[in-house]
Inverse folding.
């Protein structure tokens, strides 16, 4: 049935309507099944409609949906305790999204400096190619003209430094910098991992100059690259970590994790949110953490990551005129597409011909972020679809 669509047309949505999900599959209104290699853009770690998550949501919805942050409630307290235990951080602030978590971190950094009597320490430093969200503060930290164009004047007090350039970072971090915010893996730029030496240098320089180090793990955290938190993979402990996306396996929630030392930056009245840390998404987050332990998800991600990158390298070698060298970590991978080919063409072909869903990110790059429960067989199907899409670009016009 055709219905009038009153949604704002600010997304280039594919011409299918999804009505149901199950594990690593999505189903449209005609019953067609699609293998999901996007995972809600790194959101559905345990797949779609996981029964354990659904049960936790239903039980909490029958008990308490919202009470505001004027009162405490058990799901938020328990999830905060669990995140603190697993991360080693001391305090947790809940919000509704990754952009809001980054906004909170930016405000924290400036208020922390202010409370320490350093009123001229205002600058937020971020990296070229970064993506930190679409609210005005997070957008100002997003050093990408494509996202910023037309929204000026953006908030002042933001500077940028080249990603993975240690020497440039040494020049950029000075005593005016309140915080350096960095993604351990730049997702929107085409899945580009940080170099360990770059993050270690960032830690040393921030410590030396009194700036806070913030890791934006919104896309690469929550087990996406292997360990639960990306900073654990790099063995670099920041002052603040922001997470969202997969935390509640699809329900909107974000969080800022921080040390006791810097938590004094935000005191009662300094920052807040109506829906942040509501009972239902917190219950889903708790179920997610429990289930990932039960199924040994970290080990599974390591095994499937090896399969994914082995296949991607083989395809890149086979179609060297189409693809560059694959990059990424864990089950977050990017495959650069060489000009004159367009990643969007490959995305469309795979969806229409093979019923497999990829997406385009960054500078003409295919991004793969399947549910973390993806199987080797499903990855094989996905890679077969990618091969077929690549072959469609290399078959001469008119050939059979």
């Amino acid at each position: 049935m055709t219905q009038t669509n009153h949604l704002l047309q600010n997304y280039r949505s594919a011409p299918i309507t999804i009505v149901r999900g199950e594990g690593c599959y999505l189903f449209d209104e005609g019953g067609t099944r699609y293998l999901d290699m996007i995972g809600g853009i790194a959101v559905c770690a345990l797949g779609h409609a996981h029964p354990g998550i659904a049960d936790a949501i239903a039980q909490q919805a029958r008990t308490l949906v919202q009470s505001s942050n004027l009162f405490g409630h058990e799901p938020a307290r328990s999830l905060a305790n669990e995140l603190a235990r697993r991360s080693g951080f001391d305090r947790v602030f809940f919000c509704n999204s990754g952009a809001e978590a980054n906004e909170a971190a930016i405000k924290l950094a400036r208020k922390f400096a202010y409370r320490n009597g350093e009123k001229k320490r205002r600058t937020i430093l971020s990296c070229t190619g970064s993506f930190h969200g679409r609210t005005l503060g997070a957008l100002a930290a997003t050093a990408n003209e494509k996202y910023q164009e037309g929204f000026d004047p953006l908030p002042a007090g933001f500077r940028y430094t080249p990603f993975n350039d240690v020497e440039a970072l040494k020049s950029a971090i000075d005593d005016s910098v309140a915080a350096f915010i960095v993604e351990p893996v730049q997702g929107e730029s085409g899945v580009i991992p940080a170099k360990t030496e770059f993050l270690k240098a960032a830690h040393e320089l921030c410590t030396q100059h009194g700036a806070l180090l913030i890791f934006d793990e919104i896309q690469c955290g929550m087990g996406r690259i292997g360990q639960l938190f990306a900073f654990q993979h790099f063995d670099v402990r920041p002052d603040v970590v922001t997470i969202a996306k997969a935390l509640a396996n699809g329900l909107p929630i974000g969080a800022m994790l921080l040390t006791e030392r810097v938590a004094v930056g935000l005191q009662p009245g300094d920052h807040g949110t109506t829906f942040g840390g509501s009972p239902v998404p917190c219950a889903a987050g708790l179920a997610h953490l429990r289930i990932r332990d039960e199924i040994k998800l970290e080990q599974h991600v390591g095994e499937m990551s090896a399969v994914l990158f082995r296949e991607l390298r083989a395809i890149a070698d086979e179609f060297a005129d189409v693809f560059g060298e694959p990059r990424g970590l864990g089950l977050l991978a990017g495959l650069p597409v060489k000009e004159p080919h367009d990643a969007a063409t490959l995305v469309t072909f795979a969806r229409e011909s093979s019923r497999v869903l990829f997406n385009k990110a960054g500078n003409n790059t295919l991004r793969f972020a399947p549910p973390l429960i993806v199987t080797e067989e499903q990855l094989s199907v996905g890679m077969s679809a990618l091969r077929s899409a690549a072959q469609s670009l290399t078959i001469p016009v008119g050939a059979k």
